[in-house]
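Q: Joint fold for the lines below.
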Amino acid sequence: MANVTSLSVNGKKLPLNVDSQTSLLSALRDYLNLTGTKYGCGESQCGACTVLVDGVATRSCVTPVGKVAGKQITTIEGLETNGQLHPLQQAFIEADAMQCGYCTSGMIMAGAGLLKNNPKPSREEIVKAMDRNLCRCGTYLRIVKAIEIASGTAKEVRK
Amino acid sequence: MKNEFDLELERYELFAEPFYNFSFNRRQFLKVFSGGIALLVPASNLLAQEQGESGGRGFDQRLPNDIGAWIHIEESGAVSVFTGKVELGQNIRTSLAQAVAEELHVPVNTIRLVMADTDLVPFDAGTFGSRTTPTMAPQLRKAAAAARETLIALAAEQLKVAPADVRIVNARFVNHDASKSLSLADVAKGQKLVKTIPPDVAVTTVKDWTIAGTSVPKVGARDFVTGKHEYTTDIKLPGMLFGRVVRAPALNSSLVSADTKPAEAIAGVTVVREGDFVGITAPDPQTAARAEKAMALHWKTPGQPGEAELFELLKRDSSPSRGGGRPVGSIADGMSAADKKLSQTYIVAYIAHAPLEPRAAVAEWKDNKLTVWTGTQRPFGVRSELAEAFRIPEDKVRVIVPDTGSGYGGKHTGECAIEAARLARASGKPVKLVWTREEEFTWAYFRPAGVIEVSTGVKNDGTVTAWEFHNYNSGASAIQTKYAFPNQNIQFHNSKSPLRQGSYRGLAATANHFAREVHMDELAQLVGMDPVAFRLKNIQDQRLRAVLEATAKSFGWGVKRQSGRGAGIACGFEKGSYIGTAAEVSVDPKTKKVKLERIVAAFECGAIVNPVHLHNQVEGAVVQAIGGALFEGIHFQNGQILNPKFSRYRLPRFSDVPPIEIVLLDRKDLPSAGAGETPIVGLAPAISSAIFEATGQRIRSLPLDAQMSPKV
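A: Joint structure:
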């Protein structure tokens, strides 16, 4: 099987050399040292590995790199622009939407994917879009709040 | 069956043994102390606090032999706090910094916590049992207050004023007319001063708190939202290999034969075989996976009990009694005074911690020393396990715990650390081992399953006259009750568990509250009383009354509900804090599916240290409780875990979480207790009672959902 020799990640073309069946998650973490994307289950159930592929939230743990070669991949490391946090990253801090933080990258990427396609999601739309992402610490309500803050639909912000 | 699967939780829970394992003595301290000012917390202070005694043992200028924690004001003015506690998302990195910043009168962001590195920090038994806030925080607070007084005295000398005339403003020491000021560095420079907390050190009273008691944001939050924070799983060392353990098809299997030659022939692969342990190291995970496929291993697995026989076994193999305490009054008298009697059995399934970061370790042998980075709640315990496993002295082992992707009581042990160290030793290179989700489900340990039998007598006026309570296997935590029952016989019976079991957030407090509070609901029904009024009739403890009343009030208890809906309430106490929980559910008449409509939880843990983080801890515990209450349960047979993945083991998700109202009762007059565990205990009984109100069906086993709509 042909190997994948480069990936476009966070606006840069990065060289690597892996079997095209290698998961995108492993390619990012083990070969490209982009460890912000996390392993949680390996079966697209927890969303800790979520990245954007051409702007669409994608489970990197079940995505073979062969499928995304040539596409634009955005990871949590690429969400900041010029040292400015993405509004959702900022909102996560503001809403204190994390405890252990292990799910946070995937949550933010899934949320960023949602906001890209639907800048003003309703609460129901947020829950539906995020339902495949797990947070074992139980910060769900605050994550919803963070997405609402970032989209400007939050009713009130707890100080 | 091997007997190593005895309850591990009691060992952690009771903690009555003296600290014998102090490794951080004066000599070691002086090795790491470079200069500046240090304030030491003697380990005995932490122990004394643990045992509920007050204060120190008389000031002397000698350093304590055993150091439990220390604060360092470096010559540069940097302030570091050294503690063996571990950050797993409970935000003690923030709350401990708040306590120290408060007393030093400096901003929180000037405090650096050095945590859970066995070469740098003093011995600590571990991060569990909700102990950081009640034991570590007050001692660090005292140390910081003493440091401040020392700094003021030194500053006064330099400023040539009386100490009483020195104020600290914006982290600077200012003289009487504010004409001169000194920074922390100005004062600490050139010093080499080490002190022990004096016994008479005064700390800021709760009503004067300005930093503690406020919602300081999570320390390091930016690194978590940018993916920069390095968990164990993210560590990469030069020349590091990837490890993999080849697992048996079932628990308690033994290796009969192994052909590992084809795997060893793969370039860069090392195969390690020691007894029943077979492991692989490879330059990358793909090669490791290939090597595993190339092996032919034959295992022998003994027949083992399955879940169908579980509850019968737990009772059959139980001890007569192991804890629970002496009976109070006489059950016989209580029963004869009763108008009505009730006997019921309650059961709870094994459940998994399922921290999102699975067990992981990076091990390196270098210069005759083993260093292991790993996510554990017991860094020093894991160090001991490693020293024992490799027959080397503990000072040749260093365990470093990066802030971890949580644990919930599930990361007390060091099996992954030992495996990584074995692989690293065999391959001669640093090795990273990350357990897969299936390994995490199968080869770690569970919250104990249990059977609880309750027999009681009650008068028609609602007075409970006899309370007999036997818990088989799930544990003794919160087995005692705060209800004022005149006649009690409460016993915990140790049993032989077919699966490995250990600590879990709240330990057996969830099981014991489930049985107790559902039973209280049943008794209320038996005598035709409102469940809140019935409980209040049997409560004398004012703090328990307060959380119950706060819960009922915020919930709107007693308001008529729509048909198809029901409400339930529960209250309880554990580890110094009180919880009341009420839930409203609707049950689909056809599918019997239970939907949570809303939850109210009222919590009181003394003086509140950080309101937002406390709110979040309580909310998080309630959300985690949804899983154990409604749908989490381990299925097993013949040594195999049948649902070892998220697609088969359902955890609470966004759509499972209803509106949750958290009521925090701030008791500034009481010392702060921990909050990580107790809020988890009230939800399961509240939901069970709510289902009963909605459907008339009384469910006495966890998870509840499985009973409502059994799987086909």
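Q: Anything notable?
A: The longest helix of chain A spans residues 104-117. The mean pLDDT of chain A is 95.
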